[in-house]
Amino acid sequence: MSNARVVVFNDTHGWHSAQLTEALADLNIETVLIDLAECRIDTRSPTGMVIPQFEATLPDAVLVRGIAPGSLEQITLRMDVLHTFAELGVPVLNPAHAIELTVDKARTSLRLHLANIPSPQTWACESRDQALQIAREEFAKGFSLVVKPLFGCQGKGIQRLDELAQLDNLSVVGEAYYLQHYVAPAETGCWQDWRLMVVNGEVIAAMTRRSNHWITNFAQGASCFASTVTHEMAQLAIRATAAVEAPYAGVDLIQDPQGQFSVLEVNSVPAWKGLYQATGIDIAARLAAMVASHIQQTRQVSFPEHAS
Questions:
Q1: Which of 19, 55, 137, 143 has its CA 20 to 30 A from that of 289?
Q2: What CATH number should be reported for the domain holding residue 22?
Q3: What is the CATH number of the domain that holds 164?
Q4: Which Gene3D superfamilies does the protein's record reference (predicted)?
């Protein structure tokens, strides 16, 4: 693809950026690595933005690999830039609205619920009294709960509650209480879940994550194995990705002791190093092909006389 330049946004560019740069180069697409925080809004510019290495021009596409932590105001400005790219006709993958629907776990849970996609029973509130009452009621029914940061990843900050005595020490980030039913493993003592990578409505790779602990994230030391998936699992992942309006996503599934699958999380900025190591599948190449396809579609809309 001639004269195409793609921005990959991340605050730290490492293995994933190198993989994407190589895969895009194979399609004759130049990659520019930028931190989203380096961009600024500037209404003296025709686009209203100043993007490092682009002066008054725009990239042909944007691939969001990461958004650094920051204040509400900083994150808002970075999302403003992503929204503006899309409004100017630049393909953004994943788009800002999909990131907003997934970085906030409560929004993801609501989307899954409204789409009738199986997911653990969930509560989110600001009141400690409400959270404690929910916990007491669920404990009385025989359930355990998992408390997660509303904004969090890689299994960090997750707490499991099994009894009332633990409520005295319950602490949450930002006074926001996000609680879910704990899903017991299908096989006692063997905790596992599945990560499925969905690209353009297709599951392109999947792995099982196993641990001797109930937190099964790769970043927390879980072992990863290549996995085949059933039609039910694939459809759950595809539907979950569509529910958050993401062209691609990493979807986490879990199976309960009754054999039923449900969606734990949907990640619109998924890492895939563990998935690549487990399966050998060139995920970066599939993402690069997706980006190239979006660029081609945009060019055909802009210059329909050149469309084949």
A1: 55
A2: 3.40.50.20
A3: 3.30.1490
A4: 3.40.50.20, ATP-grasp fold, B domain (3.30.470.20)
Q: Note whether 177 and 192 are same-domain residues.
A: no
pLDDT confidence bin for 189, thresholds 50/70/90 = confident
| Statement: residue 1 has pLDDT above 70 | no
74-96 as b/e: b if 16+ CB within 10 A: ebebbbebbebbeeeebbbbbbb
Give residue for tokens 């180069």: 25
Q: Which domain holds residue 146?
A: 122-181
Residues 6+ apart with CB under 8 A from 147: 158, 159, 160, 161, 170, 172, 177, 178, 179
Q: For residue 69, list its beta bridge partners.
A: none
Tell me, yes or no, whether 158 and 177 share the same domain. yes
Other C-beta atoms lying within 10 Å of the C-beta of residue 297: 12
Sign of CA dihedral 280, 256, 210, 106: positive
Closest C-alpha among 85, 87, 83, 121 to residue 100: 83
Distance CA 233, CA 196 (A): 9
Strand segments (E) across 212-247: 223-226
Q: What is the pLDDT of residues 223-276, one digit of tens each?
A: 889 999 999 999 999 999 999 999 999 999 999 999 999 999 999 999 999 899
